[in-house]
Amino acid sequence: MSNSETDVTLKPIQVPSETVSINLPTDVVQALTKVAEAKDMSLQALLRQYISQSLRDDLAFQFSYKALERLESVLNRHLPSDQSVDAVLSDIRNDPSVQAFAPNWHRQRRKNANLPTIEE
Questions:
Q1: DSSP 8-class letter at 14
Q2: Residue/partner pairs of 95-104 with CB below 8 Å, 24 or more apart
Q3: Which of 17, 97, 105, 115 is at a distance of 20 to 30 A from 9, taking alpha carbons?
Q4: How confident is the model at residue 99 (pLDDT cuts 50, 70, 90)?
């Protein structure tokens, strides 16, 4: 091996961040601390992981919902009846993979109505 292959230095990517303070019940902090220790992580890293995953899930749901709305619009233009469109959308919503992702589709729709919109 040459020296250039062994002298590689990795630098962490610096992203802008803000400090946020949050009050949590003591028992929740204790439980989070135990989980963090079990995962060999800091409490802060665990919280970041949980927040990031939840945010990704919400944004993925919103993206999927927006895609279904677009599909509905296209189907309404190209299929002969509303019943046909409803049947297609019902099949999609009742598909096991969709149910696994969003089992409470209609409740989620109302709950996520105030999420920030995804940029087009």
A1: P
A2: 101/60, 101/61, 101/64, 102/61, 102/64
A3: 17
A4: low
